[in-house]
Design brief:
The complex is a heterodimer of chains A (211) and B (312). Chain A is built from five helices and eleven strands. With 211 residues, chain A is an alpha+beta fold. Chain A has two domains: 77 residues, no CATH class; 119 residues, Rieske [2Fe-2S] iron-sulphur domain (Rieske Iron-sulfur Protein, 3-layer Sandwich), CATH 2.102.10.10. Chain B contains twelve helices and no strands. Classes of the chains: A alpha+beta (211), B mainly alpha (312). Chains A and B meet through loops of A and helix 10 of B.
Chain lengths: 211, 312
């Protein structure tokens, strides 16, 4: 390792700041406890880093590397929170035959599949039992012939059409079709909705079964 | 000495060196043991002179302004307080003591929370059972759980009141505007701690509260699948911010575990770091804010202490 004096001679154009020059780096008085013998003899500059000019290209490269490294970790950190595989209930299932259901609302699948089967004189459809306000499960009140959400009081009629409370639209309906064995196949991953001020999807194919 | 032996001309010289050294050691033992014993006896007479004592208590304790300041400055816990403060700034009618009470409640919550963790499993099968277990069987479990619960409620109230008094006294103004923003962040983290803790009992109240709370996240601009510009950016129920919070599309086992980790580890660490900055900035911005200093009438004719008394 070249000493501080030779280093300065090799780069005469390199003007080190006064505080970092070899002269200023020499110890005056007793060296601190733990100072190496080499440093005590030759000053800090003898053992410290060389006092050359800053290579701005190298410095920029170093910062680019550090930024890229931290940036990649930052992105990975957020991606980490989105799992690929989910262990959630199936979204499609069979619920028996259309003839199993009488006119009106049937709540027998509410606990298991979060749906109500609703039959009108000419149609059978499945309401997804999620309040369109903030996602609670409303209760079916047979005596009042309506659905009532316990969280914020949204009310829906027997076909899931909102008429009171903060709900912005009727409750969504799940896709229904007849399986080859004649049972009703429901898929709650495909929902039909009727957003306020927009055309209804409740008459789309798949939103109901004609009976 | 050993170097000399290495260069020795003959073995005899070495043997003489050895004998000398043994003699020296014996002499040292003779003089050192009595001097150490003497020191111990003197220590019994006056314990404040022993090395053990002086290594712990590093300055004199007679009542001088210097010693009073040193008593605070040389103690890691006390040095968190300023050595001297303006007495008008600590009137309870001015500060309400709300910042300190908030921190005290945070300490209570950390202590009781860590103890609750010894009996709580963040799983769908066990979480609610563990709450019943804590409430009905674990010694002092009911006390700990309710301390945690009440301290949590009180901390949210105390944070709001602290913010309210800072606003009323104008203490958010220059040079404290940076610290006001740190405080706003701390408010947010306090509320997030409250919210994540809500789900942990896994009871009906917490479950539906978190269902409602995370459903609001659907409407987050850009990052929610029902929010402005969300669908255009490709957000669906399976990749938006709500999905990331819950670890799934429904409030289930992943959501419980995530709430638990954010509640017990993630948010407390971030909040603690911000608290350190918050308290440090209080000192750097001129100490706790207060009204202009006044002198009591009874003191008006007495000489003042402190640098002004030393003569300007």
């Amino acid at each position: 390792m070249p000493g501080p004096e030779t280093e300065v001679k090799q780069n005469p154009e390199a003007k080190a700041p006064a505080s970092r020059s070899a002269e200023a780096a020499k110890y005056v008085g007793t060296p601190a406890v733990g100072t190496s013998k080499a440093a005590a003899a030759g000053g800090v500059a003898a053992v410290g880093p060389e006092n050359g000019p800053v290579d701005s290209r190298r410095r920029r490269l170093a910062w680019v590397c550090i930024t890229a490294f931290l940036g990649a970790w930052f992105i990975a950190f957020f991606r980490f929170f989105l799992p690929r595989t989910l262990f959630e209930p199936r979204t499609s299932f069979k619920i028996g035959y259309p003839s199993d259901y009488a006119l009106g609302v049937d709540t027998k699948w509410q606990q298991k599949f979060r749906i109500w089967v609703d039959r009108t004189p000419d149609r059978l459809f499945v309401i997804y039992a999620r309040c369109t306000h903030l996602g609670c499960t409303p209760d079916w009140k047979p005596s009042e012939n309506k659905f009532k959400c316990p969280c914020h009081g949204s009310g829906y009629d027997s076909e899931g059409i909102n008429f009171e409370g903060p709900a912005p639209r009727p409750m969504d309906r799940a896709r229904v079709e007849l399986a080859p064995d004649g049972q009703i196949l429901v898929d709650v991953a495909k929902l039909y909705s009727w957003p306020k001020g927009q055309p209804t999807q409740f008459n789309d194919a798949g939103a109901y079964l004609s009976v | 000495m050993p170097e000399e032996n290495g260069n020795g001309k003959n073995g005899k010289n070495g043997r003489v060196g050895l004998a000398e050294r043994v003699k020296e050691d014996l002499q040292a033992l003779k003089t050192e043991i009595p001097s150490k014993a003497k020191e111990q006896i003197e220590g019994l007479k006056d314990p404040t002179k022993t090395q053990v004592y002086t290594s712990i208590f590093r300055h004199k304790h007679d009542d001088t302004p210097r010693n009073r300041a040193l008593g605070v400055l040389s103690n890691v816990f006390l040095h968190l307080h300023p050595a001297k403060i303006n007495r008008d700034a600590v009137r309870y009618s001015y500060t309400w003591g709300m910042g300190g009470i908030t921190f005290y409640l945070f300490v209570v919550l950390t202590f009781t929370g860590v103890l609750l963790m010894f009996y709580y499993h963040p799983t769908k099968v066990q979480a609610f059972r563990d709450i019943l277990y804590l409430e009905h069987d674990v010694p002092f479990g009911k006390l700990l759980r309710n301390m945690h619960r009440w301290a949590a409620h009180l901390m949210v109230i105390a944070v709001w009141l602290h913010m309210f008094r800072v606003f009323l006294t104008g203490s958010y103004k220059k040079p404290r505007e940076f610290n006001w923003n740190i405080g706003v962040l701390l408010l947010v983290f306090t509320l997030l701690l409250s919210f994540t803790g809500y789900l942990l009992p896994d009871d009906q109240l917490g479950f539906w509260a978190v269902t409602v709370g995370t459903n609001m996240a659907r409407a987050t601009p850009l990052l929610g699948h029902e929010g402005p510009f969300g669908p255009q950016l490709g957000m669906t129920p399976y990749n938006d911010v709500r999905f990331g919070l819950l670890g799934g599309s429904i409030v289930d086992a992943n959501a419980l575990l995530r709430a638990y980790i954010w509640h017990c580890i993630g948010i407390p660490i971030v909040a603690s770091v911000l608290m350190i900055v918050h308290f440090w900035r209080v000192r750097k911005d001129g100490g706790i804010s207060g009204p202009a200093p006044v002198m009591l009438q009874s003191e008006a004719d007495k000489p003042r202490r402190g640098p002004k008394a030393a003569g300007e």
